[in-house]
């Protein structure tokens, strides 16, 4: 069992939804980002999504674009992102770490080299936004061979005919994008999310986590009631952007966690 | 497949949208169903005579095609070598080749029942063409344009607004063409039901590179027929400028299998193609990567972060290039060279002075290479330069560069 499947199995046994948070590696600088990331598990986070900065994040809204720019400006690289993952792994042996980003920095480093380094750093899975199943040969299949999960996004435009192709090589969990749009844009409507999660769960024997448009503890609670996990990214990244100290950011994360876990 | 490829350079892309290593469909899942639908609709339209009949009618009566193939006698004499012809796509309605493609995509959007058109634009030529055709068909039009370019290209911004388009200045990233394209993709992801994304060049996810090429190929098809009528044979050399590469692909594609036709693409060399990276020459100064839905040559750093292109021509400073060009470069069928800002300015002046034609800065790059090349060729060599746009939009940029003349 991998760290990720193990984590979801335990949460299911406890009848709890997973709280998945996204922070950008290197934002606003390497040390601050690491301090925040290291504090996430104690704040109630079950799975850490670590953003890999890219100059042209086409599927992300303004908050995460700006986070990538701050990180790159502060000198973030693929190597420093992997170093962040490694440091989180050293401090938290059981918390799953998923790297989320775009293909070009991985392609530029070389797929084989990147996968070896990610495994060595203790990364559990990858979410690469611009690699649909049509391009599985690029990274998905090699990543699975290397022992990493490849987590795919399913969206409101993924109809029943297409869903099997999207789920085919997906592992770990399915990330359901609750709104057609970019990250951080609109608020997810729990009443439409429930049936969609059920539709995906019927087709996949995997946990379904819901993201895009979850910004408050209240909303997180509503989504947690209908899904296996809740992903929050932009709302946390915005706190970092506003200059909140790591302790304040983590306090906000704790509030969200209480929403998800029904505390 | 392999033997077929040996016999022809014109069969690409394959079913995955690849030209060799290049092309593909590197987009977010939200867009994937839309792109597959577009591909299916385009495949239907492509073989529908009614679709092409409507295109031909609009090309003839609205755009003013065929554009002339003009023998430039004084330019030929000045350079003292090859016989130079200009393919006059700058005479099209809206002043550039861009409208050839926009018409095709808008007719397709209408067939698909889309009511809202979005586009990205750099210099503003594609934005103006899109706004124009949207006005013609009464469609809502939103054009994304980097805030830097909005400032640099004010006349085109005004034109788009007159034509009823909404121009959205993009401040994200570095606020130029690539950021405008990112923003258009973000809009498309958000407005999937009613929106059609009209891409302005032979780049983006499959089927865009092939579709835009097919629409622009009217340039090469006409050139072929016109040259045969005029000289009784095919041209010897074709030269076109390349940003994303749509005018060049349109001229080149019908000639790719004519092995005796030498084909040359000219990228923007900016301040010179070197380690400073102050240029927009993706092929001669970049390396393969993935951006905006396709794999192609990109300007990027060692870590895979995309760099900003530089060119005096706002229409050429894109850090990528169409994937079919990347493939033609790798297999050696087309030669790719570059011309600097200064060389383009000299060519601009020469064209004004010898032919009474004010060229856009984009084809001035192609002419800059012709200035180097033509004198080395015999007088019976037939050379075609794609005059893909007129220079009205550039006179302020040129005045500034030349110190007010």
Structure description:
- The complex is a heterodimer of chains A (263) and B (405).
- Chain A is an alpha/beta fold and 263 residues long.
- Chain A has a single domain (3-261), classed as TIM Barrel.
- Chain A has 12 helices and 9 strands.
- Chain A has helices at residues 3-13, 30-39, 62-73, 78-91, 103-109, 111-121, 140-145, 163-168, 190-203, 217-224, 234-241, 246-261; strands at 18-24, 47-51, 97-101, 125-128, 149-150, 153-154, 174-177, 208-211, 229-232.
- In chain A, strands 5-4-3-2-1-9-8-7-6 form a 9-stranded parallel beta sheet.
- In chain B, the strands form 3 sheets. Chain B has a 6-stranded mixed beta sheet, with helices on both faces.
- Chain B is of the alpha/beta class and 405 residues long.
- Chain B has 17 helices and 14 strands.
- In chain B, helix 3 crosses helix 5 (98-111).
- The longest helix of chain B is centred in the first third of the chain and has 15 residues, at 32-46.
- In chain B, 44% of the residues lie in helices and 18% in strands.
- Chain B has helices at 2-7, 32-46, 49-63, 73-79, 98-111, 125-137, 147-152, 154-162, 177-190, 208-216, 218-231, 246-252, 282-285, 323-331, 341-355, 361-373, 395-401; strands at residues 18-19, 22-26, 69-71, 83-87, 116-121, 140-146, 166-170, 195-197, 237-242, 262-270, 287-291, 293-298, 335-340, 382-386.
- Chain B has 2 domains: 19-59 and 98-212, Rossmann fold (3-Layer(aba) Sandwich); 64-95 and 216-401, Rossmann fold, CATH 3.40.50.1100.
- Chains A and B meet through helix 3, helix 5 and strand 6 of A and strand 2, helix 2, helix 9 and strand 11 of B.
């Amino acid at each position: 069992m991998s760290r990720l499947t193990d984590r979801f199995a335990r949460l299911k046994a406890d009848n709890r939804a997973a709280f998945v948070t996204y922070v950008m590696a290197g934002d606003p600088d390497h040390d601050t980002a690491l301090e925040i990331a290291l504090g996430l598990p104690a704040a109630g986070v079950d799975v850490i999504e670590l953003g890999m900065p890219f100059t042209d994040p086409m599927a992300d809204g303004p908050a995460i674009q700006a986070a990538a720019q701050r990180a790159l400006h502060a000198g973030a690289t693929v190597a420093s992102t992997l170093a962040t993952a490694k440091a989180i792994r050293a401090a938290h042996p059981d918390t799953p770490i998923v790297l989320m980003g775009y293909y070009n920095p991985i392609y530029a480093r070389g797929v084989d080299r990147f996968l070896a380094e990610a495994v060595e750093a203790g990364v559990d899975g990858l979410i690469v936004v611009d690699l649909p199943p049509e391009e599985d040969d690029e990274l998905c299949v090699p990543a699975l061979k290397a022992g990493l999960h490849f987590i795919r996004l399913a969206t409101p435009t993924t109809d029943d005919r297409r869903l099997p192709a999207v789920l085919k090589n997906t592992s770990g969990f399915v990330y359901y994008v609750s709104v057609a749009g970019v990250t951080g844009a609109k608020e997810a409507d729990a009443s439409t999310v429930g049936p969609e999660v059920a539709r995906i769960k019927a087709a996949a024997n995997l946990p379904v986590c819901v993201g895009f448009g979850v910004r408050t503890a209240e909303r997180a609670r509503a989504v947690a009631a209908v899904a296996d996990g809740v992903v929050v990214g932009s709302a946390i990244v915005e706190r970092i952007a506003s200059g909140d100290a790591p302790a304040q950011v983590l306090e906000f994360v704790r509030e969200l966690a209480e929403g998800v876990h029904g505390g | 497949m392999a033997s077929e490829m040996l016999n022809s350079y014109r069969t690409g892309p394959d079913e995955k949208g690849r030209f060799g290593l290049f092309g593909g469909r590197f987009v977010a899942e939200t867009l994937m169903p839309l792109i597959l639908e577009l591909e299916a609709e385009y495949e239907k339209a492509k073989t529908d005579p009614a679709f092409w009949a409507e295109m031909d009618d609009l090309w003839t009566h609205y755009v003013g095609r065929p554009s002339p193939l003009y023998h430039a006698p004084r330019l030929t004499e000045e350079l003292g070598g090859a016989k130079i012809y200009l393919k006059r796509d700058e005479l099209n309605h809206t002043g550039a080749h861009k409208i050839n493609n926009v018409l095709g995509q808008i007719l397709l959007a209408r067939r698909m029942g889309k009511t809202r058109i979005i586009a990205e634009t750099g210099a503003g030529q594609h934005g103006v063409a899109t706004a124009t055709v949207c006005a013609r068909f009464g469609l809502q039009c939103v054009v994304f344009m980097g805030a830097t370019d909005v400032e640099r290209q004010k006349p085109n911004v005004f034109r788009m607004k007159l034509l009823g388009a909404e121009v959205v200045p993009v401040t994200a990233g570095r606020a130029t063409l690539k950021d405008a394209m990112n923003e258009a993709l973000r809009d498309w992801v958000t407005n999937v039901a009613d929106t059609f994304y009209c891409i302005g060049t032979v780049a983006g996810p499959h089927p865009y590179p092939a579709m835009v090429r097919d629409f622009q190929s009217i340039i090469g098809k006409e050139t072929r027929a016109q040259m045969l009528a005029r000289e009784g044979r095919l041209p010897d050399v074709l030269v076109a400028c390349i940003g994303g590469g749509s005018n060049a692909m349109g001229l080149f594609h019908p000639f790719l299998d004519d092995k005796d036709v030498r084909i040359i693409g000219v990228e923007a060399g900016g301040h010179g193609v070197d380690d400073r990276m102050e240029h927009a020459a993706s092929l001669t100064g970049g390396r393969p990567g993935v951006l905006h839905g396709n794999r192609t040559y990109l300007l990027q750093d060692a870590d895979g972060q995309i760099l900003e292109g530089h060119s005096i021509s706002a229409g050429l400073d894109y850090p990528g290039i169409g994937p079919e060009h990347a493939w033609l470069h790798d297999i050696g069928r087309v030669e790719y060279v570059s011309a600097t800002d200064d060389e383009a300015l000299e060519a601009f002046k020469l064209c004004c002075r010898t032919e009474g034609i004010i060229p856009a800065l984009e084809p001035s790059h192609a002419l800059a290479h012709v200035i180097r090349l033509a004198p080395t060729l015999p007088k019976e060599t037939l050379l075609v330069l794609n005059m893909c746009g007129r220079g009205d939009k550039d006179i302020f940029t040129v005045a500034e560069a030349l110190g007010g003349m």
